[in-house]
Amino acid sequence: MGWNYTIAKGGSIGSIIACWTIGILYISLIAINTEMGSVIPEAGGQYAMAKHFLGPLASFNIGLMLVFEYVMLEAADALVVGQILQTIDPDIQALPYIILSLLALTYLNYRGVQATLNFNIVLTGIAFLTIIVLLFSTKFYSSESMLRLSEMTNSLPYGWIGVLGAFQFGCWFYLGIEGTVLASEECRSKGRALPVGSIAGMMTLIVGASITWFVCSGMVKFDVLAKSTYPLYDAALAGKIPAVINILFLGTVLSCLASANGCIADASRAWYSMAKDTLIPKAFAVLHPKYKTPYRAILFLLPISIAFGFTGLLDQVITFSILSALLVYILTAYMMIKFRRMYPLGTIERGYISPYHPLPSILVFLLTGATLVGMYFGYWSNLLAGFLFYLLASIWFVFHRSRGLDYKAFIKIDDLKWPRPRGY
Fold first, then answer.
1. Which entry of 114, 253, 346, 408 is 20 to 30 Å from 13 by CA?
2. Rounded to whole angstroms, how far apart are CA atoms 119 and 123?
3. Nearest to residue 229, comparing CAs of 84, 96, 100, 93?
4. Which pTM does this prediction carry?
5. Using an 8 Å Cβ cutoff, are 80 and 94 in contact?
6. CB neighbours of 8 closer than 8 A, spacing ≥ 6?
7. CA 219/CA 54 separation, integer angstroms
8. 96: which residues sit within 8 A by CB, 6+ positions away?
9. DSSP class per residue in 244-282
10. What digits encode the pLDDT tens for the residues 108-156?
């Protein structure tokens, strides 16, 4: 869900163009993420990279942006779970199910990361299979199916400006895949696990996104699809096959739970890393004595996610998550260029080398900038509010929190065992 708002901004054809174009952004992003992530010796992903390549203020902002990116994504997932349950009976209240699903996933994360991520593999695998079932139920290989696709789509109603606007929700096809580096500390072999996991994830997303667009655009009228909360389930309803409807109901719920589950793991690790480095109160930098999980961070972020899920404003929640992610992408592209200047190839051992440098960083800059411009159309107030929020957070950090920053805890140079960076 969420990707289908691309149709409201760019039309059906604008949606698939946005899907594949933003796919290039994410392929470039995971390439630079994986190179830097393969040498950083700690959890925190882009936040940990910023510690070593940008400094405290940038680290604080990136950490905060990561937390809100995943907390908002988690809230959006839970919101859809609540709303799809209302299709069973309109009298069902969504809020209790939103709270219940978040509580259950929070408890799972509280008990340990291995069980959490293994559970995600199972949920995501089942959900992906339901999309394949839906695809074959439409008999997509027939001429009748292709004719229906042409009847349901509305091409490019707003021209190329609409495509630019669609980039915003095109990010929702892939948002979160860059979070693979947040789990680097748990990997036995970062140099192998990060590129394999990221590339396999991108392949899954591109194939799944293309199938999802094709099926939904061929089964659901564009004006309905453009505002649907659960487009795949609506496509199943349009097919009128009871078994497929039940399967997609299950698939939608499971995919949202899997996504929310991963978001809890990512957001809590970013928050824990910030606390461990004294950018926020160290009370959150405590691991559970038995389960070794950042349980205080996990529990602290739960009510925030519930509060945003309670709003019921799916597109608004998604927009703030996307904006937070885009700001991280811009800073990540800059970090990659600085990283290569500080440590050229051959100076330190890398588990993965991003090809064609600096092309991936340039593509991330250009496509992220274009997406921010496209976000202005229809969501300019959200854009302004997001920038204002991070500006105020930066002012608070500079004039208040930075005074209590423990620089020895913030960055342990001796632990890196790297040579002195070039030019420093």
1. 253
2. 6
3. 84
4. 0.90
5. no
6. 226, 227
7. 48
8. none
9. HHHHHHHHHHHHHHHHHHHHHHHHHHHHHHHHHTTSS-G
10. 888 887 777 788 889 889 999 999 999 999 888 777 777 777 777 788 8
